[in-house]
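Postdoc handover notes: sequence design on the structure in folder B. Input tokens:
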């Protein structure tokens, strides 16, 4: 056993102490969250392969310090604006409280029993610095994306200290940002006392390691962060299994890079003498062992998830058999999907001003104004660059959306970039083959939105409803629009149901029949109805001649 059994650079005592001191200092100064422009990017030889900065002087304004700071200094990302105006429709706020409370627990046990547990636990991000790359002139878009990353990071329970954007035509294969820029990030990290850098892209395993070697703190990417949030929020057995599968899929090729936790696993026997920078972490044998265990675990999870599917399929088939129309609510995360479900059905689903509050699909009964029943399901929210591992793992959940008769595509009309969100959502819908389902664009948060934005989208989209789940504005119209869009029972029937079989009548009321006329006769209840074809077959024995 060597003394030097953990070669992670941050484990050096000196550095740890320096980091703690810097953190202390930083808390005393208590800087507000801000992003700063990368104003020196043009003079950095390691970062500038982009000819535009030479030839296009108008670009300079993009990097004008004042411009960037003024737009960025106004606090944390606006999606997480200090806005907790809950209504009585907002569901289980105790759940919300619990979730927050749990999230703040620090200092997880280091006694890891199973390698797969490593990644299922919170990444323990606390004080983070964000960094992103963009090409060409679209600084604004990169900034929105970084703001969203800030919101994601806060949702995961961390404090965002600062953010950096760099323009660069292609990422550096070794360190993503190039070593010069990475050094600058390192300086900021030390100055602010950050313990993590989050990069606004998916990094190749080698890039993550390369960057980590320079900045000396943990580096994670957008995908890793989103997976972490999903892991925190998964509730049902199926949801947990799906997230774990996605995490392992993500982790497997990166196994080597998760140095510290893995070498702790391996105890003192590996990574010893001769293990320099870049070769930290467990030795080859341990990695092989971990890899096999992970593969076994993944195989099991796939089996488990497959086994859970039949139950849901039976439910779905049941709905189909009774021809109950189904409406799925889909949309970008935080658009107000759960709020809308609560508004439309008086369900009490958790509403939270956080990203990915809902992971487990909830299905509720609803009815059109004229009494036709349908099901309404809330689903997981989408986000730009939704990790493919998650789309895969959640495929069975997302297929519910594809099987629906109608999609309510909820859009946060008060967001600065609603069109980009619509596009991101449609990309995922296409991936799960849900793009052919009828869709109503529901422009939500109309109470907070700019009317020009609403008009702009109205002109672009054929089928739009403008609502506010908060105030109730437009909800009645939306209910009407749903009633017109869902398939109607089409088989007219005249029924006579004996009084002894009252449950048949209640079923007609509860489910899919359109009841046109009811009268009470000596032999039973006489009904004039319209039903779906499946139910029509079942009701054959009650049918009477039209008189
Ligand atoms: N101003 C305003 N805020 C709203 C409205 N509808 C929802 N919100 C707020 O938006 C935030 C997100 O609402 P949710 O219903 O949890 O959103 P979601 O789409 O289910 O989010 P995820 O499950 O996280 O994907 C909450 O803070 C709500 O209070 C609205 O009509 N107006
Ligand atoms: Mg939700």
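Designed sequence:
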């Amino acid at each position: 056993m060597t003394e030097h059994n953990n070669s992670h650079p941050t484990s050096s005592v000196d550095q740890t102490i320096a980091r703690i001191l810097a953190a202390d200092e930083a808390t005393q100064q208590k800087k507000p969250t801000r992003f700063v422009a990368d104003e020196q990017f043009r003079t950095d030889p390691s970062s500038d392969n982009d000819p535009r900065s030479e030839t296009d002087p108008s670009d300079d304004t993009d990097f004008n310090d004042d411009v960037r700071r003024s737009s960025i200094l106004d606090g944390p990302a606006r999606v997480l604006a200090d806005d907790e105006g809950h209504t009585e429709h907002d569901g289980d706020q105790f759940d919300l409280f619990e979730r927050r409370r749990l999230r703040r627990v620090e200092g997880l046990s280091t006694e890891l029993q199973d390698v797969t547990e490593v990644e299922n636990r919170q990444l323990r991000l606390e004080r983070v610095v964000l960094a992103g790359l963009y090409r060409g002139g679209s600084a604004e878009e990169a900034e929105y994306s970084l703001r969203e990353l800030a919101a994601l990071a806060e949702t995961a329970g961390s404090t965002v200290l600062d953010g950096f954007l760099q323009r660069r035509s292609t990422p550096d294969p070794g360190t993503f940002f190039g070593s010069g820029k990475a050094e600058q990030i390192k300086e900021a990290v030390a100055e602010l006392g950050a313990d993590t850098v989050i990069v606004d892209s998916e990094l190749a395993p080698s890039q993550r390691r390369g960057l980590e070697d320079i900045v000396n703190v943990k580096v994670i990417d957008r995908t890793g962060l989103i997976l972490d949030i999903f892991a925190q929020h998964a509730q049902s057995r199926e949801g947990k299994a799906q997230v774990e599968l996605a995490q392992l899929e993500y982790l497997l090729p990166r196994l080597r890079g998760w140095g510290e936790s893995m070498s702790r696993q391996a105890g003192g026997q590996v990574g010893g003498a001769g293990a320099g920078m870049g070769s930290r972490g467990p030795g080859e044998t341990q990695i092989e062992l971990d890899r096999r265990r992970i593969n076994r675990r993944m195989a099991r999870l796939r089996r488990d998830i497959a086994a859970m599917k039949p139950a849901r399929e039976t439910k779905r088939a049941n709905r189909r058999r009774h021809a109950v129309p189904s409406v799925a609510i889909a949309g970008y995360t935080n658009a107000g999907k759960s709020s809308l479900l609560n508004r439309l059905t008086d369900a009490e689903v958790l509403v939270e001003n956080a990203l990915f509050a809902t992971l487990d699909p909830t299905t509720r009964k609803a009815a059109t104004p004229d009494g036709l029943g349908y099901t309404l399901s809330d689903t997981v929210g989408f986000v730009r660059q939704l990790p493919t591992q998650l789309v895969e793992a959640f495929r069975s959940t997302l297929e519910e959306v594809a099987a629906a008769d109608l999609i309510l595509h909820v859009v946060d009309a008060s967001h600065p970039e609603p069109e980009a969100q619509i596009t991101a959502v449609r990309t995922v819908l296409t991936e799960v083959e849900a793009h052919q389902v009828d869709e109503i664009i529901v422009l939500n948060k109309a109470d907070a939105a700019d009317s020009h934005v609403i008009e702009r989208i109205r002109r672009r989209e054929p089928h739009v409803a403008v609502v506010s789940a908060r105030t109730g504005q437009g909800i009645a119209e939306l209910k009407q629009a749903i009633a017109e869009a869902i398939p109607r029972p089409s088989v007219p029937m005249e029924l006579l149901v004996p009084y002894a079989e009252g449950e048949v009548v209640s079923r007609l009321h509860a489910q899919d029949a359109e009841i046109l006329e009811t009268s009470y006769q000596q032999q039973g209840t006489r009904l004039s109805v319209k039903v779906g074809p499946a139910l029509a077959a079942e009701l054959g024995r009650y049918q009477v001649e039209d008189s």
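Context for whoever picks this up: The CA atoms of residues 63 and 502 lie 74 Å apart. Don't rerun without checking with the PI first.
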